[in-house]
Design a protein that fits this description.
Elements (H helix, E strand, L loop, with lengths): L1 E9 L3 E3 L9 H11 L3 E5 H6 L11 E5 L11 E3 L2 H10 L4 E4 L3 H7 L5 E7 L7 E2 L8 E9 L9 E8 L2
Parallel strand pairs: 1-6, 1-7, 3-4, 3-6, 4-5
Antiparallel strand pairs: 2-8, 7-10, 9-10
Length: 167
């Protein structure tokens, strides 16, 4: 099973601000939805709760939520208390590519073992409080997927790239 991280990241590595995305990029949201649909997705509880209630759990995907809160429960999701348990659950279900979708601490704990990164590089310096971890780009083969210019519905230009670990 491949373990893939998927995120939109500003030039200064910001991925979130006050529990929300700090941009509006509908084409990136469409890419995220199409890429993760039909797969297991793993996220932290805070990230899960930042998704608007009408979209939770994310449809067309098996939602795995990691939390330290033993009493946390919600319909339609799989809850685990360690990342390893969540990854093992997806593996046991026969998942071919598990998507880690955040937040910052979950990314930090999983990037060293990731096989693939799908990163939307947002061309802006953003104020925020949640960051994507630094990584050594020389360990990855990069494939350009798409470029999108700033326009009337996208407040920043961005590039979507896939990074495949080479060693």
């Amino acid at each position: 099973m491949k373990v893939s991280l998927i995120a939109a990241v500003s030039e200064n590595r910001v991925i979130g601000a006050k529990g929300d995305l700090p941009w509006s990029l509908p084409a990136d949201m469409k890419f995220f939805s199409q890429t993760t649909r039909g797969h297991h997705i793993l996220m932290g509880r805070v990230n899960y709760e930042s998704i608007p209630a009408k979209y939770r759990p994310l449809p067309g995907r098996e939602n795995i939520v990691i939390t330290r809160q033993k009493a946390f429960s919600e319909e339609g999701i799989h809850i685990f208390h360690t990342i390893e348990e969540g990854i093992e659950y997806a593996r046991q279900q026969g998942e071919k590519e598990l998507f880690i979708i955040g937040g910052g601490e979950i990314y930090r704990q999983t990037i060293a073992n990731a096989d693939r990164l799908y990163l939307t590089h947002v061309h802006a310096q953003i104020d925020g409080d949640t960051f994507f971890p630094e990584f050594d780009a020389s360990e990855w083969r990069v494939e350009e997927i798409a470029h999108h210019a700033k326009d009337d519905v996208h407040n920043f230009s961005f590039d979507i790239k896939m990074y495949e670990r080479i060693f």
